[in-house]
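Problem statement: downstream parser choked on a complex file, so we are re-checking the raw output for the zinc ion run. The parser issue turned out to be on our end (a line-ending mismatch), but while we're here, posting the original submission so the record is complete.
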Amino acid sequence: MSQALYRKWRPARFGDVIGQEHITRTLQNSVAADRVGHAYLFCGPRGTGKTTTARLLAKAVNCLDEDLAERPCNHCVNCLAINEGRFLDLIEIDAASNTGVDDIRDLRDKINFAPNNGRFKVYIIDEVHMLSTAAFNALLKTLEEPPPHAKFVLATTEEHKVPITIKSRCQQFNFRLLTTAEISERLGWLAEKEGFTIEPEAQAMIARQGAGSVRDAESLLDQLVLAPGDEITLERAQMVLGTASDTAVAELVDRWLDKDGAGGLALIHQALASGADARQFCRQMVVYLRELLLLQAGGAELPLDGTPEQKEMMLIQARRAPREGLIEAIKRFSEAALTPAISWQPQLPLELAFVELLPAEPLPMPPAAAVATAAAPEPAAKPAKTKAGTKKDKSPAPEKETAAAVAAPAPDPQTAVPQRLTLGAVTPHWREMLSRVEQVNRNLPALLTMGKPLATEGSTIVLGFDYPIFKDKFDQLPDGVQVVGDIFSQLLGTKCSVRAVVTSEYTIPIQKDEFDALAEELGGVVREE
Ligand SMILES: [Zn+2]
């Protein structure tokens, strides 16, 4: 493609500008009534159509069509000259690159000369907030006494940086971010015009990546089209744009909610290995987490473009995630997205953002080691440390215990004497249990993710559910308790059972009786500490 899509298909009429009808209609009416103001201030995020609309206005006021309502006509010499970028009376100043007062002085010096071939000289000052104070003052003088043949359109992404004295001389219009649906529709239209096909999933993904900016989305599309007649698949889009799959993003949120550090990092590495870009991944996380937050606050509908499974997963996650946690996560990932990549460790900001969201405790160790050295949830309950480490004296090095635990054949859970469990020993097996459950009952894992191991009572694992409805649902399953109990027995190598409770109604048992019983069992070893 020789010309960028967004340039090639830049709207030629007010009606072609998408998503800003509240502005284009007003401008169109002013043109039709021949009451165009002398200064406008266009505010709004990048890529939402400010400059495009400014050029349309420049074209409309210089159009030669006799029917005012038809301006810009795109046929007269002036319209054509502007469309081809060779109209001398349209002067565009990019304040981001010309911050000096000289450019505005130059503007002031020349503004009094009559237009060359148009009726109006139109000055478009992009990123006007970048002007220096001196330049603003010079501009203000011009705005106060403009010659009748001059029109100004000031555009800015940062309205608050534009002095009030300037604002008060302008008619202000606020451009809004476009919705994903609006951008997606535009991409579909472009694809049709350019003669290539695009998978709906790819179209939705690119639209989402645009994050409200139609120009950004069109630039992304540009990178993907190699030749006319191309088909843009989701796979290609993900590859070229370095986008992680939607599944990876949703799953990373799951890992975070499960406090599964190792699983989350593995997932990140897997996504990066298959071509995802780390900063892009961070941005996707921000977009996704924001949607969860809005869902949770009841302020949003589910995204229209997701599959039913994705929508269900989002609902579950929105219910599970603590609100402060979500806000914190959005902050972390947006910071990470803005952190300049370190060339030799580009994934580091992403990894750090994820790890920093996890509780401060060390990550769960691999199962065998975790059983041997598992700590009880309460730091005060020191003796728990020795509990799983058989009845030996505590003095041997932990490595030895770990090795012994690994080497020892797992006792048959059906015949072994039930052991007292600790939460620390159970939690590391939670994910594995979920994946094994899935093989027995496909619907059970989704329900179980609404709960988590809360405590242990002897050889019983207490599963806490935040909402009574999920606890009841679990209890009502004909074999839910049995299946989960059996799988945990297998995983822990000891006979155990499970019972469900509502988290807020459950008091975690005091560890003291456990402490005493254990102290007695160990013959005072614990007290010697
Ligand atoms: Zn015209």
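For whoever reads this later: The two ends are 75 Å apart (CA to CA).
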